[in-house]
TrEMBL record:
Residues 43-227 form the SusD-like N-terminal domain. Gene3D superfamilies: 1.25.40.390. This is RagB/SusD family nutrient uptake outer membrane protein. Residues 345-474 form the RagB/SusD domain. It is found in: Cell outer membrane. Coiled coil: none annotated. It comes from Arenibacter arenosicollis.
Amino acid sequence: MKRQLTSLARKMVYLSLFVAGVISCDDLAIDTQGELAAEQFYSSVADIQSGTLGVYSVLSDKLFANSENYCHFWAADDRTAATGSNKTFYLEYDQMQPLDTNPWQTNGWNQLWEIIGAANTFLDNEEKMRALVQGSDEEILDRSLGEVHYLRGLIYFELVRTWGTIPLLTSQADVTGQEPLASFEEIYALIIEDLIFAKNNLGPTSVNGIYRANKWMAQALLANVYLTTAGFPLKNEANYALAAAEAKGVMDSGIFALEPSLNGIMGVQANNLSEDGNTEAIIAFPANIGLDGWNAGNYQAESILFGDKWVEIAFYNNFPEGTRKDFTFDISDTGQIFYSIEKFGEQDFGNVNKDINYLRYAELLLIYAEAQIRATGNNSEASALSALNDVRERAGLTAVASATWEDVVWEKAWENAGEWSRWYDIIRTETLDEVNAIRDPYDNNLTPLGNGITEAFPWSPIPANDVSANPNLQK
């Protein structure tokens, strides 16, 4: 990890200038040699804007675009891995027996820490930046700080939900590479602090790029964080009410709505973020083929092009019949269940014009429904049922007059099938044993389960090289 966190200031400056030239709408000065020293940077408002883009650089180019960084999602019941070819690294998680030498998972770990380092480098310079701005430029700085706090909160949320306890770095100063593991309480406290700061300092619309953070992104993510901290491992159940309140704030904004048709939920060409917009996209990263045709949208492209996301039999069999099931899955000539082109979109290898959706409005409605039911203890609470039934009715299902929190979690599994949330929901609700118990014999034979990942310890192993360099990372 030290490799990602030390000597990062110069790299962060280079990245910020490169990205400013590639994806920014601003005319910012560019150091084409990438040789500005960190102490020479952050000496103008243009530097502040360029530095902010630098924190986005890895995220917008690779991190959320390639499923190779997310092998742990294959531990969930909404997917299974092919057993041959280059799918071995997914298979480790599908069989609950991940290795700490998994190169794809290690790559995701490294990229996440690169963003943390870039964010901390920027925030370390806040005092210097404050000294050079005045008037309307102060608003630019406040917005930039809000974006970077949002990004740091987002990335730490990814780290802690995947690897469990991790080091907690809030500054690049004096990083030694021997930092100890922080507690879950400490990590989530920083995430919540970052997102509250972002919510309070960002405006309602993105500025200088549709992928850029705004108030609603921060607030929706905060709702998800509160929901997560109310479950395993923290089990701070008072946070269910906070999750419901934050989700409701976004719902009441009137900015977002369910797409009328399921065909629009993932941002097809006609309504992707770069075209006419998508009313369901709260947090999304738009396809940017100019960055890299392989990576742009590849996270979802792999479900169609390479057969990397098969569907476990029990998940498919338990999925409610009807419009959404037909929309979500395709059956091959040999009877294999795949995710459909209709859901994930028509794509051509190397030319993927596809939004990468991280949090949709449908998921926010279900976050609210679950949190509200848990907070009130009322399975018939009207606003929770309204949110739940909005999703169900769009899916072609009948409205319900009552629902348990378990009902909502399963609804979310079906609505977000093949997306970002299922594995994390299984962890926080402590339902891994339950899910594995209903696994179909076909999948048990195809990918027999080990015990490297358990309900009590569902975390990915920290990469072996990092543990070797820093024994404090050993769990």
